[in-house]
Specification:
about 120 residues, 2 helices
């Protein structure tokens, strides 16, 4: 995943309901990045992000930023939505990367996506 500056975190990331890590600088934003290598039909690589959005009825859905994504539907948990994103990405030639960031320091904690598939 490319480095992201602190100012971009709010527009690209999903605020965490339960902070990860310890005070005073917890990892409080999750960023999901999707990239696709350039192909014969596209001269440039595609890059985008996914925000995990929650509806008023407490269902989760994907909000794509910078790319057109599919309608994956609604999910009762964030984990199920992340699993669906990982599966969609792998089936459609996208690479999936996820990291937690601290908005106070900009520190990043990478997430292993395969942990969601067990």
């Amino acid at each position: 995943m490319d480095e992201i500056n602190i100012a971009e975190l709010a527009s690209l990331g999903t605020p965490e309901l339960n902070y990860i890590g310890n005070n005073p600088n917890p990892y409080d934003v999750t960023v999901i990045a999707l990239t696709r290598a350039k192909t014969a039909s596209k001269s440039e690589a595609s890059k985008g992000h996914v925000k995990l959005l929650r509806s008023e009825t407490h269902l989760y859905h994907a909000g794509f930023v910078g790319i057109e994504g599919p309608e994956l539907g609604s999910f009762t948990s964030r984990t199920d939505l992340i699993r669906a994103l990982i599966e969609w990405a792998s089936k459609n030639g996208w690479s999936f990367a996820m990291a937690h960031y601290s908005t106070a320091t900009g520190q990043r904690l990478d997430v292993n996506p395969s942990a969601f598939l067990t």
